[in-house]
Amino acid sequence: MSLLTPYSLLWKHRKIINAVTRSEVKVRFAGSLLGAVWLLLYPALFLGTYAMVYIFIFNVRIPEMSSPGYVILIFCGLVPFLGFSEAVSAGVGSVTSNANLIKNTMFPIELIPVRTVLAAQCTQVVGMIALIVILLLQGKLGLAVFYIPVIWALQLLFTIGLLWILSALNVFFRDINNFVPVVILMLMMISPIAYTEDMISPGLRTILYFNPLYYIIMLYQKALIFNKLASPFQVTVFVSISVVFFSLGYFMFSRLKTVFSDYV
C-alpha cells in the first residue's frame, strides 16, 4: 500500500461516493417537518446562544470590532466546528450500524465513514454560504476567500482519517461511541470559536496547539475575517495533521476491516 492509495480509492469510487452521500442526506431529512430548513436553523440557534453568552453575559468585547463584527467572528468559528462535530458524532458508529454493508463484498466498506463525513457537511455548506454572503454585502470579503476550498479539503481529509480510526476501533470498543460526545463538548469549550488568537495568553496558547480544531478555526477566521492566510506554523501543522491522519486512518481501517464481520 502506497501513500497515494487512500486518495486513489476516493477518486476511483467518486461516483459511488456521490450516490451514497445523496442517499444519506435524503434519509437524514426524511419525515422531518422542517426538512432542509434545519440546515440554516441549526447553526443559527448555536450562533444565537454563543452571542448571548459571550456578548451579554461575559460582556466580551474586541476593541477593533463592533458587536455585529464580533458575531460574524463567532459564526466563522462555529460553522466549521459544527461541520466537524456532526461528522464525528454520526461517523463513530457508522461501521457498526451498517453490518449489511460489511458483509457485502461488492461495496468498499472504507467508504462508509467517508459517506457520513460528506453528508454531515450540509450544515457547513449552508452556513459558509450565508457567512460569505454577509461579508460580501458588508464589503468585507477579500481575495483570501479563495483559500477556503483548500482549507475545507484539508478539513475533510483530517475528518475522514480520524473517522477511519474511530469507527474501526468502535467495532471492538463500543464505549468510544459514548465517549466521543463528551470529547466534542470539551473541544467546543476550548476551541477559539468566540475569541481571537491575541486574546489567548501565551501559556494557554501552547495547550491549544494540541487541539486540531484550533488550526481549522484559525485558518477560516484569518481567511474570511482578516483576509489573510494563517501563519506558516499554523498552515504547516494543519497540512501535516490532515495528511498524517488521512494516511494513518486508512492504514488502520484497511488492516482491521478483515475481522469486522466477526464483531458486528
Structure notes:
The protein has 264 residues and is mainly alpha-helical. It has one domain. It contains 12 helices and no strands. The model has no long low-confidence stretch (mean pLDDT 88).
Secondary structure blueprint with pairings:
Layout lengths: L4 H8 L1 H16 L8 H20 L9 H25 L7 H4 L8 H9 L2 H16 L10 H25 L3 H15 L11 H7 L3 H13 L7 H25 L8
- How many helices? The count is 12
- Structure classification: mainly alpha
Radius of gyration: 19 Å
Beta strands, count:
0
The average pLDDT is 88
Q: What are its keywords?
A:
12 helices; 264 residues; mainly alpha; single chain
In short:
With 264 residues, the chain is mainly α.
